[in-house]
UniProtKB/TrEMBL annotation, chain A:
The keyword Secreted does not apply. Component of the dolichol-phosphate mannose (DPM) synthase complex. It holds the Pfam family DPM3. This is Dolichol-phosphate mannosyltransferase subunit 3. One of its GO terms (biological process) is GPI anchor biosynthetic process. It is found in: Endoplasmic reticulum membrane. GO terms for cellular component: dolichol-phosphate-mannose synthase complex; endoplasmic reticulum membrane.
From TrEMBL, chain B:
Pfam families: Glycos_transf_2 (PF00535). One of its GO terms (cellular component) is endoplasmic reticulum membrane. This is Dolichol-phosphate mannosyltransferase subunit 1. It catalyses: a di-trans,poly-cis-dolichyl phosphate + GDP-alpha-D-mannose = a di-trans,poly-cis-dolichyl beta-D-mannosyl phosphate + GDP. Transfers mannose from GDP-mannose to dolichol monophosphate to form dolichol phosphate mannose (Dol-P-Man) which is the mannosyl donor in pathways leading to N-glycosylation, glycosyl phosphatidylinositol membrane anchoring, and O-mannosylation of proteins. Keywords: Endoplasmic reticulum, Glycosyltransferase, Transferase. Residues 8-176 form the Glycosyltransferase 2-like domain.
Length: 89, 238
């Protein structure tokens, strides 16, 4: 099944529940009409929150950069000794 | 007795004269006694990358370092296909030449595959003990945004979709690569999403990614637009 169909299926299920709520008037209808808006807004908030949290805890590795520079120096040393041209950095 | 696996490491290069020498040294340093070959697919780099590779062949042997060049810059996706045709290993590892993918992680890819019997092991930067160095805020923001979008809409089952440091069982790579049409940035994402949809067993290992020290990046430009197009394309075709 194409992935878009799964998402559409999910949307249909959610709308079915919503229509059910409207019909059964479990919640006051003025509120029920706004539910999709709430849903979209909370989805947006979720997205921004996830990006924000991801940014705050973005894994970085400054020590890796230093280790890499050591490895580069070691590799250059070796290649130079073997007569390869590793000039110009 | 357990048969010893052979690994083919495919490295696409374009203007990586300095990097390729350093990278090959580090690969040999970290894989020592393993049975492996390095396949370099160079797209006619004007900076003398191929000269360097020939010198490396003298040093390490032509049966360990294979130069499979192409006449002109034909793009990354087809470079992997081209290298794959010449691979003789049971497993294929793909990595960048620019030292953003450090060969010290190769043993952990191989170990993970052996432990789990996975079809694919993919490097991820976005978990504990993974990480990135050298990105500015904008680059981090787009990366996080892209990731949240993909996780929300595609449910891919892996945490790092656009990374390109991966180990594949050879037959699996051959199967997946033939169904992939995207190019550039989206290529890696399509590869892993299609593999995941086909039901292949995918495992992750943490890697760190240090932005390139030498040379310039060949991707870029309208990356964000391409990414969004790729995302929609994958929604409808996978
Ligand atoms: N053969 C080949 N290699 C390429 C091409 N474009 C990029 N590469 C190589 O692919 C790898 C990743 O490219 P890079 O410019 O570092 O991309 P970035 O890390 O996403 O910025 C490097 O090893 C490049 O040399 C191409 O058109 N042909
Ligand atoms: Mg790079």
């Amino acid at each position: 099944m194409k992935h878009i169909l799964k998402i559409l299926g999910l949307l249909v299920a959610v709308s079915a529940v919503w229509i059910g709520l409207l019909e059964a008037s479990i919640v006051p209808s003025s509120h029920a009409w706004l539910l999709p808006v709430y849903l979209i807004v909370s989805l947006g908030c979720y997205g921004f929150l996830m990006v924000g949290v991801g940014l705050m805890f973005f894994p970085t590795c400054p020590q890796e950069a230093q280790l890499l520079h050591k490895d580069i120096a070691e590799a250059k040393e070796f290649l130079k000794k073997k007569g390869l041209d590793v000039g110009l950095d | 007795m357990e048969k010893n696996n052979k690994y083919s490491i495919i490295i696409p290069t374009y203007n990586e004269r300095l990097n390729i020498g350093l990278l090959v040294y580090l690969i040999f340093k970290h894989l020592r006694e393993l049975d492996f070959e390095v396949i370099i697919v160079d797209d006619g780099s004007p900076d003398g990358t191929q000269d360097m590779v020939k010198q490396l062949q003298q040093l390490y042997g032509e049966e360990r370092i294979l130069l499979r060049a192409r006449p002109s810059k034909l793009g990354l996706g087809t470079a992997y296909c081209h290298g794959l045709k010449h691979a003789s290993g049971d497993f294929v590892i793909i990595m960048d030449a620019d030292l953003s993918h450090h060969p010290k992680y190769l043993p952990s890819f191989i170990r993970k595959q052996k432990e789990t019997g996975a079809n694919i092991v993919t490097g991820t930067r976005y978990v504990k003990s993974g990480g990135v160095h050298g990105w500015n805020l904008m680059r981090k923001l787009t990366s996080r945004g892209a990731n949240v979008l993909a996780q929300t809409f595609l449910w891919p089952g892996v945490s790092d979709l656009t990374g390109s440091f991966r180990l594949y069982k050879k037959s699996v790579l051959e199967d997946v690569i033939n169904s992939v049409v995207s190019k550039g940035y989206v290529f890696q994402m399509e590869m892993i999403v299609r593999a995941s949809r086909k039901g292949y067993h995918i495992e992750e290992v943490p890697i760190t990614f240090v932005d390139r020290v030498y040379g310039t990046s060949k991707l870029g430009g309208s990356e964000i637009v391409e990414y969004l197009k790729g995302l929609i394309y994958l929604l409808f075709t996978t």
